[in-house]
Design a protein that fits this description.
heterotrimer, A alpha/beta, B mainly alpha, C alpha+beta, A: alpha/beta, four-stranded antiparallel sheet, 10 helices, 13 strands, elongated, disordered C terminus, B: mainly alpha, globular, disordered N terminus
Amino acid sequence: MEATIEVAGLRKRFGPALALDGMTFTVRPGQITGFVGPNGAGKSTTMRVILGLDAPDEGHALIGGKPYPKLRHPLSQVGALLDAAALQPSRSARNHLLWLAHSQGLAAQRADEVIEQAGLQAVARRRAGGYSLGMRQRLGIAAAMLGDPPVLMFDEPFNGMDPEGIVWIRGFLRSLAGEGRAVLVSSHLMGELEDTAGHLVVAGRGKVIADTSVSALVAAASGDRVGLRTSARTEAMTVLAHAGATVTATGRDTLTVAGLTPERIIGLLGASAVPFSEVSAHRATLEEAYMELTRDAAEFRAAAPAGEEAAR
Amino acid sequence: MSQAAAAGQVCLPGRPAGALTGLRACLRAEWTKTRTVAGPAWLLAATAGLTVAVSVAVIAAVRCPAGMACPVDPGRLSLTGVQLGQATVAILGVLTISNEYSTGMMRTTLTAMPRRSLVLAAKAAVLTGEVIVAAAVGVLGSVLAGRLIMPGHGFTAARGFVPLSLASGPVLRAAGGSVLYLALIALLSLGIAALLRDSAAAIGIVLGLLYLAPIAASFITNHHWSVRVERYSPMPAGLAIQATRHLASLPISPWGGLGVLAAWAGAALLAGGLLLRLRDA
Amino acid sequence: MTTITPYRPAVQSGRDGFGQLLRAEWTKFRTVRGWLIGLGVAAVVTVLLGVLTGGSNDIACTIGPGAPVKHGRACLPPPPPTAPGGQPVRDAFYFVHRPLAGNGSLTARVTSLTGRYAAGQGPYPQLTTPGLQPWSKGGIIVKTGTKPGSQYAAMLVTGSHGVRMQDNFTRDSAGLPGLVSAVSPRWLRLTRHGDTITGYDSADGVHWTLVGTAHLAGLPATVQAGLFAASPDHTVINQNFGGGETGTSDPSQATAVLDRVSLAGPASGAWTGTQVGGGRAAAAPGRFQRAGNAFTVTGSGDIAPLPPGDGNGLGPNITIERNLAGAFAGLIAIAVVAALFITAEYRRGLIRTTLTASPRRGRVLAAKAIVVAAVTFVAGLAAAVVAVAVGDHLATAKGFYLYPVTGLTEVRVVAGTAALLAVGAVFALGMGALLRRSAVAVTAVIVAIVLPYILVVASILPVGTADWVLRLTPAAGFAIQQSVPAYPQVYGLYTPNGGYFPLSPWAGFAVLCAWAAVVLGLAAYRLRRRDA
């Protein structure tokens, strides 16, 4: 089986709200795919469809070429953390993992292994009702790892984690991808994924608005704008505008230039003897790139607060 | 949730002049909570509907053939539906508080309204009010069905069965008492739910308390004991209020029986309120 | 892009099958302490309520006006005779008999059956009112001896049930219908061949019809063959409107006139009259007159099973199912646990984890049903065994007569009670999956199973309606607890109040099973169709 998630043309309507509107993307092995978008973009619904929990109105989701319900021992093929709060409060972490292990024909020893992997040894025999959100996230991750699956999905795994936990989970996700697994991680906060994900699927209004590598996304968001600091603002604007650039004055001695590379700008200014003190390529953060992309989708959220929450 | 919390804030002490304070504010908050979710409305409608439906079914099934003595209490017979109606009332009473526990909303409520006994009192008052309305509809429908159907089934005035009318004292007592009975069942359920906090366990205890007593009484062959069970358990005692004839043969007087039920409900509420104050939310 | 070596899992999954699903659900069940406690509570209340209802019972009696009140065993009349199967029976009649030492045939023509009874005359009744009881009997009989409870086969005419062939107290088959009279006599014949006795009847003595065949195991070579008459008490049941009953019971007597009596075979001795059995028959002593081959036989009493209950000569008695009344309480606790087994998963969203681990949803529900049914059955069986043991012990200590049932019946009642709880659990699980709210599901279960029973036993419904309620609602399942069947050959009011269900034990249980299956089926349908 090839370790991939293939989502093609998913559409799903919850009453008046269109939760998924042609969601299409592929998650490949060996890298972390970030699945980002504002609340209500359809991330959780997509994950539920992938896991066969929700039936799409149109389209299909395949794991290694098969729909989820057709998988034998599904937890050995896909591990998923959807909702860390989905626990019976009076059952201990170990017993929670134990029944999951039994459902897959796995030995009880496997439960102990993932408890150790998730760093839950100290609390494994306490009732789950008393766990902090971070501990629940770790338990959810342990449950996802139970079948040692080649495909993993985590819905908002950073929620409720303390800084130490966030560092741990980043390293953990990287090591999973390093082992050749396909890892899909959803988040509505881009910053969490900035140093982790290699590939990004940005969702908004139930469809993919960008499916690209992190570096390409940042470059696209940065555009080809160049920042220029000069004491001769008017001269610089004239020279550069003649060369075909769009020049905007952003301050008393600063300009933003679009349409020319920094090298060309330096060349032009030097040839015309216009003084300048700084030329810098403007680089957007991933957060900015994301905000840029999802502005429309965020507006959608304000207009119709249904979406993902209503879908639950 | 935010709506209820907002409504609840007026319950805090030391509000500016003009704001509602104390019990009135809590009442308003609880009423807002009740009317803004669909569950209670459905349960109230079900209470009225099921009460009438079962009463009509039983009345329709019962005939008094000519020449046969029919030792029937028409008032009690017409109000049979209360025995099912009390089940939905019990659900309502239990969910009024255990629903908040299971969703964690109780913390919001108690943060907004820190005087816990006041919260329970407000819940009890709102619950009583809405149950009385639903119960009145169900009981009136049942009495009306009895009045319309029974004479055609052989229960004629000539044979000593005057058509049911609220103008008759015993019938009024049976009908009004049945409404009070249902309200007390709701309070009993609320108290038990406040004690147990888990809705499934609470409803099991409430319905066990109600329904097991008549079964136990029917199995006990020792007359003293079966009378004792019927006299002191909530359902057989409380339903004595439905009797309109042969009062002497009842194990307990109509109002005395309702008093027994009131004592049960009061004890449950008191214990529930006490635990609510003592326990961490 | 670099080439990636896809991940090869190091962990090997076991075999795929329903067994591991069962194991997972069992692990789920046993790891929630509250559910185990609930199961324990169900077992305890099942025992307690049964024992408390039984334990509160007491016996007190006075014999005769002004006599001191006596308690316990002193009130118990001498134990009744029992049939070969252990069934308590009434075996009192007037018997005119001769020994028959081998195979043979007994024939007689009945030309009249009349009776008299005492109508409500207090403790010293006179048989002054003419009239037959429905099961007044007169006819011919072949019996091991004159000891009450011994084996027999008889052909007889009755007060209002026509000609019957009856043997060994519980077996009864119908022959010619109608009343017997001089213009419409009934010919009766019994032929013995070894252990087998065959009964025939005829309206004219020429054309004979087979009515039935009785196999009396171990019948001795010499038996008593002859004529008999018996008449059970005149019983008036004022059937109260809602199934409650008040009854009076007074002695009665029947007189049968038989002629053309012939006993073919190795018969010896003269016709001898014997009063078999005692009890109230002694109040109206039997007798016979003979004129050639014509006999007039007068007798009182009955040859029939003795059902449990009051006022039938058994004295204070208790049936096995009385000890199991606590099943109602147990069922309520079980309903809570079984509904929570699924509604708790909905409440927390855990159902998604479950369905992710086992995407075949119907199988998940099936596994849950099997687990909850199995644990309930085990707990219910333990509770039922203890309840019966403790209840019997208490009842015996207080002087009650334990109404005997066969071992097989006892197993059916005890295991049936456990099965009743188990199916109730499946019903509750289905309701939970269907309604998803624990309080609503628990209420639905209790209202569906317990409330109909209350409406029936609390005498709210008229008998006919009550019977239908116990045929159609899940409460029909409690029929599995009925240990003694209703005997048509014994006049009485067989109402749910007295422990008699309108459906046979297994049919009633099947009704409950059908309800559980329908609810579980609907739940599975909904689970499969809806998003989790």
